[in-house]
Input
Amino acid sequence: MLNRFFKLAPWHFVIAIVIFYTLTVVVADVKLKQMPLAPVYTHLIELEEIELNNEELYFVFFYDSSSELCEKMRFNIEKLIESSHEPVCFYAIDVSKNSGPFYKHNVSGIPNILVFKGNKEIKRIMGVVPYKNLTSIVQRMRKYS
Output
């Protein structure tokens, strides 16, 4: 008679976590390499300080010029600006050259987009956002602002 049951030992969980982490890193790396980088010519207007006085909707992109993730996000923004039928007010602040606004607005990481209506911040978009999602976010912000 066979009285042995399969019991999960702690090392089983350690192996499962290592495998999950490895797969996550590999898949993320492959997806990241598939995304193109931003072109040299840019539609973004570089800012030193955020001083937006009228009541229009503005998007301020915080990035680091040496970050590949920021370049991927910049590409998506550039694509959105080029394909948009209505004008989109996108500005950019390079935090490696000008960190003042980064700390002033408590930006927690980059890439990050702060959405302003006049001088009031109304939304934050954090991380690399795919082009389709970014398009729907901008349309929604225009509709409800």
